[in-house]
């Protein structure tokens, strides 16, 4: 069915994913440990340190409030880093994509493999953090077992956004704009470390359009077991925005890579 | 003989630049076909159109009956490609490069392992099996790229300057391998800036300049088009000396460029005799070759 919507897409995308898996396994010390420590520091420092000074939010202790947000944040950052930096390096410097599309793979297969890999990275890192917060007793509901699905659709969306972004930048340092203008604001304002209700009304509207806002909402519901009434809207939002970003990424990259 | 690759009025434009300008060709199955031309002539662009890397602006290009614009997957399945710029996967070892690449063709693991071993042997890369690509020398990288181009047992091999930067040993190894592959019936397309290589290897070749074909045929036949079988080179000739030599060689076919006079002739002896008393600094007598034709057709000045 996917073939009807994306005629150049094939199962070959999985062979690209496998290539990334192989490289990932070779380099797991650098690929897995730092991004896993990062949120751990946030959890301990902000959750327990700062949290001691902060009153409960929506009935959660502060550390309980931010734990799901830290899981959500890696669903964003892992595919952002992998898709934008890794993707750009493979596209522009290593010419890995050029080598791939000289085989039966299409550029769409290559891009899809990249995005799927971003989603898998999101899954892996989010699950690692969930294990940690579970050990801290911060996973309150068996609904958290649904999280892998959230990681994959969320990671797919963020990966597609990152890949679409690199299709039109002229040089690698433009990736900084993605991080400072898109990633950091989401990391801080998307209902992560404080509720969006703290924001002025116009900013609350902006927050609603932040992809991370929806991922946080879903994640917090599943991990705490207190289901937000809008959870379905957020799931649908992520799936729709992810699909659009994916379609845009495929189109833009074909234009950039194939002259 | 049947043509396996045909181009009809094939044209490629990048914006205002016409890189390939309405060329026509038919490459026979099993043939080793060369593309020669100065920098920027359009050789790589033709290759890239064949392996569906750049789109065809106008005209038609078919590989084994398949239009490259409509059936890129089918075309690429039967091709092996060695691009001009190395694009080996730097995150993988020599061996892993072959295995990973074979997956892109959907080759089973078992076949891939056997094939990779065989190719590493074939290109004398066995000892570098587990080396990271970064640790390979330029020539080894080139050989690995060749091995990678053969991983899918292609019917057509596209080689864009496969021997640039190789030492003589490696170059001869590659030539020998190419002849072996040709014997197996593989069609080979080759670009090179080495005229001796083209002469030794190619069954037929075309010379390209500014996106157009300016000569085509078997190399020896092309060489015979030159005005003489032999060339006398008078080197280190200054302007005044040239003026004084002019009357002596006025009946010969010659060319003066830089500091050298090139005289084309079938009978060099009388000319050399007549020049003997001139005490010229450096006189060389040699057979005319493809390079002479190339320079004659494309001019001796450097391309921007
Ligand atoms: N991606 C591109 N965008 C714009 N122009 C290009 C592009 N690729 C090639 N060209 C132009 O097309 C022309 C043909 O280039 P091509 O690479 O085919 O030459 P070539 O014969 O392979 O040269 P060389 O011997 O240097 O490899 C040149 O004028 C080049 O500048
Ligand atoms: Mg070239």
Describe the SSE topology.
The complex is a heterodimer of chains A (259) and B (304).
Chain A: H1 2-5, H2 12-26, H3 28-49, H4 62-93, H5 96-101, H6 107-135, H7 147-166, H8 175-189, H9 201-208, H10 211-224, H11 231-257
Helix pairs in contact in A: 2-6, 3-4, 3-6, 4-6, 4-7, 4-8, 4-10, 6-7, 6-11, 7-10, 7-11, 10-11
Chain B: E1 3-14, E2 17-28, E3 32-36, H1 43-50, E4 58-63, E5 66-67, H2 72-77, E6 79-82, H3 94-104, H4 109-122, H5 138-149, E7 156-160, H6 168-183, E8 187-191, H7 195-201, E9 204-209, E10 212-217, H8 219-224, E11 230-235, H9 239-249, E12 253-257, E13 260-265, H10 268-275, E14 282-287, H11 290-298
Parallel strand pairs in B: 3-8, 3-9, 6-7, 7-8
Antiparallel strand pairs in B: 1-2, 1-4, 4-5, 9-10, 11-13, 11-14, 12-13
Helix pairs in contact in B: 3-4
Residues 43-44, 84, 160 of chain B line the site of magnesium ion (MG).
Structure description:
With 259 residues, chain A is mostly helical. Chain A has helices at residues 2-5, 12-26, 28-49, 62-93, 96-101, 107-135, 147-166, 175-189, 201-208, 211-224, 231-257. Chain A has one domain (42-258). Helix content of chain A is 74%, strand content 0%. In chain A, helix 6 packs across helix 7 (147-166). Chain A is globular and about 60 Å long. The relative contact order of chain A is 0.14. The model of chain A has no long low-confidence stretch (mean pLDDT 92). Chain B has 304 residues and is α/β, with parallel strands linked by helices. Chain B has three domains: 1-78 and 154-217, 3-Layer(aba) Sandwich (Rossmann fold), CATH 3.40.50.300; 88-151, no CATH class; 230-287. Chain B is 36% helix and 28% strand. Chain B has a six-stranded mixed sheet, sandwiched between helices. A four-stranded antiparallel sheet of chain B has the order 2-1-4-5. In chain B, strand 4 (58-63) and strand 5 form a beta hairpin. In chain B, helix 3 (94-104) crosses helix 4. The mean pLDDT of chain B is 92. Chain A binds chain B through residues 10, 12, 15-16, 18-19, 22-23, 26-27, 94-96, 98-106, 258-259, and chain B through 14, 51-55, 72-73, 76-77, 79, 81, 83, 85, 87-92, 96, 100-101, 103-106, 152. The structure holds adenosine-5'-triphosphate and magnesium ion.
